[in-house]
Amino acid sequence: MKIKFCGAAGTVTGSCHLLTLDDGYKILLDCGLYQGRDKDFKNFNSKWLFDPSEIDCLVLSHAHIDHSGRIPKLVKDGFDGKILCTSATRDLCAVMLLDSAKIQERDAYYQNKRNKKKDLPQDEEPLYETEDVKDALRHFIGTSYRKSYQINKEVSVVFRDAGHIFGSASVALRIERESGEPIYFGFSGDIGRPNRPILKDPVHLKYLDYLICESTYGGQQHNDLPHDEEALLNIIDETCVKKNGKLIIPAFSVGRTQEIVYMLDRLETARRLPKIPVYVDSPMATNATEVFQLHPECFDAEILEYMIDDPNPFGFNELKYIRKSQKSKELNTLKGPAIIISASGMMTGGRIVHHLRNHIENPDNTLLIVGYCAPYTLGAKIRRGDKEVWIFGSKKQVNAKVVIMDSYSAHGDQNEMIEYLSDLDKQKLKQIFLVHGDPDRQKIFKEELLNKGYKDIQMPELGDEFEIE
Hints:
This protein is of the alpha/beta class. The protein has helices at about 65-70, 70-75, 85-115, 130-135, 225-240, 255-270, 285-290, 300-310, 325-330, 350-360, 380-385, 415-420, 440-450, and strands at about 1-5, 15-20, 25-30, 55-60, 80-85, 140-145, 150, 155-160, 170-175, 180-185, 210-215, 245-250, 280, 320, 340, 365-370, 390, 395, 400-405, 430-435, 455-460, 465. Helix 3 packs antiparallel against helix 4 (about 130-135) and helix 3 (about 85-115) packs antiparallel against helix 7. The longest helix is centred in the N-terminal third of the chain and has 31 residues, at about 85-115. The protein is globular and about 70 Å long.
């Protein structure tokens, strides 16, 4: 049996891992899109480290595009097997992958327009199109948490709630072998955080022989939720009330946006939120929020209790969801204070880039960064403190106040990840593979795991392959 690392190895995005069983049966764990500007990964999304037609089954941990975003291309290039995931992930993918296809089509269209002006060939093609997404969605099979699903005669899978986003799951494979006892192979997916709003706490992994584990926030510790709510209120007061400015929040359409909206809803219900217009400027986030409300099985006890008095935790009088582009453009000339939540969270594209172009040079405004930004993205440059950035070909001064609150992260910090692994039998667990993290973070996390008594911890690079005994 072999495991090959085909994405998110030595970097955070593009999750993709290939497990080849003794009889040649091939299981792909995730099939994500690389998101970033690193030249070393320029061709990652268009090329494979395997033949898609040879993959027998895809097991998907969750719907984030860096875990699911290449699925339509996988199907387009020859994959014809089952795609297994939770029911909530299946429904979110229907929304997110269609949105991704539209972005691919739009990017190709505008690139060809630019090429035409430069008298270059207009041969840019989208990675995949809307029809490819529709073909891919026919392969999805949604199942429940903690229910064993038989993939074939030798392999079964169980999804457990990872507490990261709606429908997110860890993966536990039971693999029968003629040569002896079954192997229990685990994949953490993205590890969520305990005691966060909306979602249930992550369910610990147990009884594994091998584990692929994320490591995004190795060496870091997040703030606690009570500080989040007060900190957000203080930022709103300073920016929108005292300065009469705008609070711009780049946020992932799935997970982060709903958490921020829920927090604002709670403040509004408590009559602590100033009477300031709030805009969720993202069709994707609007659609995703509607999907969220179809899956109360993912809600934690706190939000279910809150919904007894407030049936809609993602809406209040001052909040408007914006779908149409014209309404989005009108926000750029809006007078007075406002809160604008828009995608993408890494500021790589989407409506948030237009809002940055129009608001980042005003010192009365605040840019609140609430999540991870991959290296080489616009978000990463602003996070590290660059005073000048290029937006749509124009140099912009970063005069707006920049506030970073990683406590909003949907990824567990180092202590939370170690707690998540605490139920594993260290004597049984033969090997841990660290993925989905920058190498410097992985090294810190690896040392801490070794200090805790775990053994044989690998940091695979892209294309590395390991034998599983």
